[in-house]
Amino acid sequence: MKLFISLTLCLFFFGLGCKQTETSEIINDFTLINYLQKGLMNTVSEDLFTPPVASRIYAYSHLAGYEALRHYHQTYKSFSELVAGLDVEVNQDAQGLPQAAFIESFCLTANHLVYRDYMIQSLKERVVNYFAIDTLDEAYLMGGAVGRNIANQVIQRADNDGYLQTRTLPKYMPNEHPGSWQATAPTFGEALEPHWPKLTPFIVDSASQFRSKLPITFNADRGSAFYREAEKVQGYVARADEDSVAVALYWDCNPGPTMLDGHFMQVRKQNTPAGHWLGIVSQMCQMHNMSLMDAAQLYTKVALGIADGFICAWDTKYAYDLLRPETYINTYIDSDWRPKLESPLFPEYSSAHSIVSAVAATILTDALGESVSFTDSTNVKFGLPVRSFNSFWEAANEAATSRLLGGIHYPFACQDGIIQGKEIGAYLLNEF
Length: 432
Hints:
There is one protein chain. The protein is mainly alpha-helical. The protein has helices spanning 2-26, 31-47, 51-70, 98-113, 117-130, 138-159, 163-166, 225-239, 242-250, 273-287, 292-320, 325-332, 352-368, 392-405, 411-431; strands at residues 258-261, 264-267, 374-376, 387-389. It folds into 2 domains: 24-164, no CATH class; 174-431, Vanadium-containing Chloroperoxidase, domain 2. It is built from 15 helices and 4 strands. A two-stranded antiparallel sheet has the order 1-2. Strands 3-4 form a two-stranded antiparallel sheet. Helix 3 (51-70) crosses helix 6 (138-159) and helix 13 runs parallel beside helix 15. The model is unreliable at 1-24 (pLDDT under 50).
């Protein structure tokens, strides 16, 4: 009888061990984080968050997920050593399922930052159902407690980074100087996020740390250097063939471009620059069959880099307050001219998309190599075809060029944006 009881107990505990091992192995690779990122991207696009706000949401969500996982992988360093204002307590004896900690931390943080929180709750439910996770299992409950604790610490940092204060600050009043930014068609809306440089950056020292110098000052005179730059934009748009237009649309990443239908104005949902590049990260995780921990680390590095890139970009933009090519060309060259893309509602210099693309390319190249060929399908969900690239830098340079092909940036803004992004990326790599 004693032998029977002993064998029964051994089989019982062996069975539990097998169940935990199988559960852990099923979601111990990139698939879990890719699933969550896709769901978060859907939520961000539905909420129509502006590009800088979207980058902040991605950064905090991935940071929380990474920090929760890291409790079970002590050889990976905490970003709290780098992120100002973040103090994540380290539990050397963290108990429970690491994936549970990751899911709870990622989703709780994302839920705190988006408008449609019910979409994040639905995402969490789909994740546990898809991976057949028992959320009532003791291992999940213990891991979930770890994740929620980490999330609360990350959320505390988010609540004190200056974002909430910017929600109540005065709206931006356009300057009457002829070289200053002015609202453009079709919405003639107010300037977006004029106080974004007031946010505390994640890793860079300050918003103005990488502010570039405006290489060409405004000049309305025909034949001036500035006039010639505007003519170049006009020429790019005039010569645009089918592929050029495809490139411009592919990298547009305006979360809510407007379309006029008679007297009605409709908004078309698109990805943001951060969502696009994190979609590329998702494909890299799958392509290189990364572990969940390595995938979480790569996502977090890129997300933090892009978020800091936007803070630096917005500092430069509002420091120089430069008008868009559309405004200049309509005023001084051709009143009927229109760009291929809708001009974004914020100052022109420098190109934020060029900056964050260069940041992402710097980090991804360092992690995966200089000649990584890939076919990007991130924006298929938004009705755009796939495009193939031979490297991350080929993609980043095409992203910068797309702003010229779309007629929304001067050449010097794209060139300087790439330079700024490289400088920010190099700084981040050194800190990492």
